[in-house]
Amino acid sequence: MLASPHSIYRSDIHPLHAVLLAGMLPLYLGAALCDYTYSVSYHIQWSTFASWLIAGALVFNGLAILAAVVGLFRAGRRSPLALAYLVLLVVTWVLGFINALIHARDAWAMMPTGLVLSVVIVVLTLAALFLGFARKRVDTEGVTS
């Protein structure tokens, strides 16, 4: 019998947390695309679409923050990267809420601030996705064969 180490790569992120985190991107990206479409077409329907997409993204973002807080306080999971990830999610949510307030204005009054803020939020969401899915750990278990 020969014992050899066997590495198992596990993600620190729970599958439900991953769904919530990944669900933010298409909603925030859709809002940014709707803002861009409104800026070139001036059809008010696009600003309304963006408002609804931002509202949905805020729900996903808030639940992802809750999952990140739970993940942060699990035994043995605290790391500077996890804290930076949580802070990034909170900053994204706060800017998303401000963006929702800007989109609550008249459609003409929300431009160009709404578009710029939407693009910034998409970039922050991409960074949060990278940090959220990049956290891995390696478990080495002795396997006998």
UniProtKB/TrEMBL annotation:
Transmembrane segments: 16-38, 50-73, 80-102, 108-131
Protein's name according to its UniProt entry: DUF2231 domain-containing protein
Chain ranges of the DUF2231 domain: 14-132
InterPro entries (UniProt xref): DUF2231_TM
Source species of the chain: Vreelandella malpeensis
Keywords: Membrane, Transmembrane, Transmembrane helix
